[in-house]
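Tokens for chain A. Residues wanted.
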């Protein structure tokens, strides 16, 4: 079978390949003491979350999408010695553990086969699980259930740590401490897995935060970037300049969003459902604005802020961006936005995956001619992410 050619130039072209992460042992690490720090609003029933995710991937496969599981990709990549060193180096924090314990931990991780090593890099490790070795004050002063390597429960949301633009992949810089190490695993997979051999990078930053949930590919050469709780103005500008330098975009819209958890990314309030159509949280339809950044000789030009809908249409070269304003009463709108009603994953123009719990938003989409493929998400939603958050498209057909 010929492998799917990788590359993405829109939000809605027919989806051919996607990277997802099946919930695993990392979610079993969540407790009432650490779930806030690890960015979960509750403790998911992991077996149920796995069932829901399996139904999600079964739907994708039934629609002809190649599903690439991050855990499998990571395990396969770790057959490389360089990849192993890459992953271990990122996981072992000598500043927190001290040199003796860090060296002991690194040596233990080097002794593991690829599968068990991948498990530790994703699910973390407690002091109780660390084999006994040299006496360490750090070990003595931690409780056995404390983490010597933190788990990464937010790996579920593969959209954030990388995104594709054209034939290239962008490695992002995640803002919050609980998620920073995720990009080391993404970077490792793209650098060392044979499937991605020869893939060039579009953007890499270790300083200015940019998260994939804030990045929408509105049209050929037109990118919107949310600026709020996770992506900073500096990150949006650095991304724009990099995309311009590599001729991957000619216009970037920097879109200010509220700096709060309910609207952590642009795709929590607005996603594309067709080539000229978005679904948008009604409470921000009239207030969402954008600064338009243009590629210009010798640098960039930045226009004053104007309404997002108008700025997007002008950049896309269309008369009007169609907005499906869910039109709900304020309480229902707020509830369904919190439950990722606006976070849809397009499988093709006018065909989207959405959480079934957002029945009012889904009905509005259907009434507007959008085919909605609803999936269960009673447990998947505890980390505040919808179908788009859980999928990193690696291949879409050109529009």
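Reply:
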């Amino acid at each position: 079978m010929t492998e799917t050619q990788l590359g993405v130039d829109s939000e809605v072209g027919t989806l051919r390949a996607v990277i997802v992460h099946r919930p695993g042992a990392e979610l079993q690490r969540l407790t009432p003491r650490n779930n806030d720090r690890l960015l979960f609003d509750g403790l998911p029933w992991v077996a149920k979350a796995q069932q829901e995710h399996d139904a999600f991937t079964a739907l994708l496969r039934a629609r002809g999408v190649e599903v690439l599981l991050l855990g499998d990709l990571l395990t396969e990549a770790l057959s490389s010695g360089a990849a192993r060193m890459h992953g271990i180096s990122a996981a072992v924090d000598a500043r927190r553990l001290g040199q003796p314990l860090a060296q002991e931990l690194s040596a233990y991780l080097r002794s593991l086969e690829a599968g068990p090593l991948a498990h530790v890099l994703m699910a973390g490790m407690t002091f109780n699980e660390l084999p006994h070795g040299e006496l360490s004050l750090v070990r003595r002063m931690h409780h056995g259930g404390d983490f010597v390597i933190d788990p990464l429960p937010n790996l579920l949301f593969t959209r954030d740590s990388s995104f594709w633009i054209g034939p290239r992949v962008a490695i992002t810089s995640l803002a919050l401490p609980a998620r920073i190490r995720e990009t080391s695993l993404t970077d490792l997979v793209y650098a060392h897995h044979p499937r991605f051999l020869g893939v060039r990078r579009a953007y890499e930053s270790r300083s200015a935060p940019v998260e994939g949930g804030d990045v929408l590919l509105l049209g050929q050469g037109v990118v919107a970037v949310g600026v709020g709780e996770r992506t900073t103005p500096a990150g949006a500008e650095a991304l724009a300049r990099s995309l311009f330098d590599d001729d991957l975009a000619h216009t970037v819209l920097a879109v200010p969003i509220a700096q709060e958890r309910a609207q952590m990314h642009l795709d929590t309030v607005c996603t594309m459902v067709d080539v000229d159509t978005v679904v948008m949280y009604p409470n921000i339809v009239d207030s969402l604005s954008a600064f338009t950044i243009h590629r210009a000789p010798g640098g960039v030009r930045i226009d004053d802020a104007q309404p997002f809908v108008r700025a997007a249409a002008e950049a896309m070269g269309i008369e009007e961006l169609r907005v499906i304003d869910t039109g709900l009463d304020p309480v229902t709108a707020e509830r369904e936005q919190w439950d990722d009603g606006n976070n849809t994953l397009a499988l093709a123009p006018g065909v989207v995956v959405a959480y079934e719990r957002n029945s009012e938003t889904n009905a509005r989409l259907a009434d507007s001619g959008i085919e909605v493929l609803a999936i269960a998400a009673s447990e998947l939603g505890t980390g505040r992410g919808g179908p788009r958050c859980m999928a990193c498209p690696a291949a879409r057909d050109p529009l």
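The first strand starts at residue 15 and ends at 20. The chain has a mean pLDDT of 91.
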